[in-house]
Every structure is written in C-alpha cells, then in structure tokens.
Write a structure and sequence with these properties.
257 residues; alpha+beta; Jelly Rolls; Arc Repressor Mutant, subunit A; 2 domains; four-stranded antiparallel β-sheet; globular
C-alpha cells in the first residue's frame, strides 16, 4: 500500500462541496471528524462525526457542508481491497464507529512520516496503514457483536453511547446502574458480560483515547483537556494519563509533533 497524499484534521470553510461523478483514479480514504451531508447508495444523508468511507477508483463522490468541517483524508494505491477484506471491511461502504479519535491519531502519524525522510519509511507507513484499517475493523465489528439477549440490552447500548458522548460528566457506577434500573452489582456484571470490559475501565479507555486525540492536536492545555474528559483538575488527569499511557501528557504531545 502506498500513500499518494494525506492530511489529518484538515479544515474546510463553508460552503464546501466535493462533486466527483467519475471519482478519482486512486483510492480515497475519508474520515469525517464533523457531520457532513454525503451521497451514498443513491441517497443524500447527514452522516455523524466519525463516519468513514474508502472510495474505490472511479466510484462517484459527493459530499457537502454549509458549516466549517474537519476531516482526515488520504489518497492511496495498492492492495487496499485485500487489506480491508482481511479485517471484514469493503470499499465504497459507509462505516460509523462510535469512537474514532484513534484514526485521526494514526493519520497524523502517517502524515508526519509522509513528509519526513526517515529510514524504513515505506515499511513504517505500510504497518501504520494496516493498523488504521485494523482499528476501524475492530471498532465496527465490536459495534456489531451480537449482544446477549437481555431484555435491557438496548438500554445498555444507549447508555454506553451516552457515556462516550459526555466524557466530561462525572459518571459513577451508581448513576449508570440507575439509568438502566438495575442494582449496582447486577449492572456491573451485565455490563462486563455484554461489552467484555468493566464500566469503569471502558470509560477510562474512552477518556484516554479522547485525551490522546486532543494532545495530538496541540491546541489545548492540560486543564482544558482534563475538563473535557471528566477530571476535576489537571493534576488528577496527568496522574491517570501517566498511569494508563506510561508517559506524561506533555511527553505524549511532543511525540506526536
């Protein structure tokens, strides 16, 4: 696989329109960080933040926004369909992972490698591209894993989306359990059985993923990130981040520049 061009967190001012009825001669990977109106399967639909699509050569492309947008994009060539098929994905298919910050981080790493002259550049880029598709595949198939047939499975799914959409909130197990009307002990057991992880660790991982993304952007202070991901102060955030990631937020941010 080879990257022809790439940008992460790329801004576009409104009105922004891409209309390519004949597509492009190469594969085009798009990860929309903000919602956008997209033509897919013959219908124009507003797709949520985090949505991804990899257009095959010659496939029509149309998307529009009347508001400022951010997106990651790559133009690629090589064995893209084979790589995607190996992780259960396909070109020209719309994917909407619930959490996609890691995809922007990986795109940022690939962009840095693309513009630098480093040893083993091609090997590194190919490995990172594989990781990009693996991460998307994991998130999509995790979303689609059949859940145990609990009568309240839908309530758990909705709660999890609510948690990930409001990471700044001070979630407690008691509050989570109340949302699905179960005791704390029963809630904890069912959550872990459904999602393969405890509610606390699930929330912690989501917070760390969001924090890594914000640090990679390079525009936010530790205090701002702490508030965004639900910590009462930056010192607690720094302590938790270092414990989870093995490095301080400052060191992580430097490694992404």
């Amino acid at each position: 696989m080879k990257i022809l061009s790439i940008r992460h967190n790329w801004p576009e001012n409104p009105p922004f329109l891409i209309d390519r009825p004949n597509g492009c001669p190469e594969y085009v990977l798009l990860h929309f960080i903000t919602p956008i109106l997209l033509l897919h399967d013959g219908k124009k639909q507003m797709v949520p933040a985090g949505s991804c699509i990899i257009y095959s050569p010659g496939h029509p492309q149309w998307f529009f926004s009347d508001k400022p947008i951010l997106h990651d994009w790559m133009h690629l060539e090589g064995n893209i369909p084979e790589m995607m098929a190996s992780v259960g994905l396909a070109p020209d298919t719309l994917y909407t992972p619930q959490e996609s910050h890691i995809l922007t981080e990986l795109t940022a790493e690939l962009e840095s490698e693309f513009f630098a002259e480093r040893a083993y550049k091609e090997l590194f880029s190919d490995a990172k591209l594989q990781e990009w598709f693996i991460q998307l595949g994991r998130k999509i198939h995790r979303n689609n894993i059949p859940m145990p047939n609990y009568p309240f499975a839908d309530a758990f799914r909705k709660l999890r989306i609510e948690m990930f959409s409001h990471l700044n909130r001070n979630w407690t197990v008691s509050e989570m359990a109340e949302c699905v009307r179960l005791s704390e002990s029963r809630f904890f057991a069912v959550y872990k059985n459904m999602f393969g992880i405890s509610p606390y660790n699930d929330l912690l991982l989501a917070r760390m993923e969001k924090a890594r993304y914000l640090l990679s952007v390079g525009r936010y202070t530790n205090a701002e990130i702490a508030t965004t991901v639900g910590y009462p102060n930056e010192f607690q955030f720094i302590r938790h981040f270092k414990k989870a990631m093995g490095v301080s937020p400052q060191a992580y941010a430097r490694s992404r520049r």
